[in-house]
Amino acid sequence: MIGILRSTAIHPNEVFQEQVRSRGENNLMWLRRYLQQPDEERSYIVLVGANNPTAFRLRVAQSHMRHDMLPSHWSHAMLLGALAIDDLGATPVYEISLEPPHGFGFPPPTNGVQQGELRQYRNPRQYPNIAVLGIAAAPEQVRAALQRFQEQRPVLDALELMLRWLAYVWGAARAGNPLHDGQGVPSAVMLEMVFGAVGFDLTPGLESRASCPEVIWQTAKWWHEY
């Protein structure tokens, strides 16, 4: 059993509400409702839930973080860079994806961190679930912390996490669910370390190195009083 603390809140966060896509609306169009201008005091995390085999394995693995044991709605989490208002799809995203669109390359110099563009998550058929979270942390400070994360593998070796999760997702040997060993989903753990470095506890109910997209979601929904 995974040691995760429950919030004492009785009601979910009222400002954290579902917003259904309009007919014909893609994920970029949906995001533009909430990302209309840069904010010097707020950074943004985007969660997505894909429907491919890797995402399915990740979502099932996170069922142990839910009281009902159902698969998570979320398979990935990423940090948005400076918003490209004129072309939102060109907004940079910082992530540690287990399915990078251009392959893994040689990841050691960046501690596994990849930079892509938000447009790669545009298709609502490939990514039917999407959420955006505004975090009270200055983007400039967060980007500086992200740079330090890439240069400090001894603090957290994200490459080891990637290998553990790839072995589990691909069913290699007898690889079990890394969450049972306190090994979080790489991109979520990256976010934990980066925001923690600027004084923001992203998931107070769980040890940072065991983080995953589901717990980030649950925290935004239930830990608002904290």
Key descriptive features of the protein:
226 residues; alpha+beta; endopeptidase fold (from Nostoc punctiforme); five-stranded antiparallel beta sheet; 6 helices; 5 strands
Measured on Cα atoms, how large is the radius of gyration? 17 Å
Cα(first) to Cα(last) distance is 24 Å
Structural class: alpha+beta
**Order of strands across the biggest sheet?**
4-3-2-1-5
Gross morphology: globular
From the 3D structure, determine the CATH topology: endopeptidase fold (from Nostoc punctiforme)
In terms of quaternary structure, what is this? single chain
**Total count of helical runs of at least 4 residues:** 6
Helix content: 25-40%
CATH class category label: Alpha Beta
Largest sheet: 5 strands, antiparallel
CATH architecture: Alpha-Beta Complex
What integer is the average pLDDT? 93
DSSP strand content = 5-15%
Write a structural description.
- The mean pLDDT is 93.
- The chain is built from six helices and five strands.
- The chain has one domain (27-222): endopeptidase fold (from Nostoc punctiforme) (Alpha-Beta Complex).
- The chain has helices at residues 27-32, 53-61, 139-151, 158-170, 186-197, 213-222, and strands at 43-49, 76-80, 92-95, 114-117, 129-135.
- Helix content is 28%, strand content 12%.
- Helix 3 packs across helix 5 (186-197).
- It has a five-stranded antiparallel beta sheet.
- With 226 residues, it is α+β, with helices and mostly antiparallel strands.
- It is globular and about 45 Å long.
- The longest helix is centred in the middle third of the chain and has 13 residues, at 139-151.
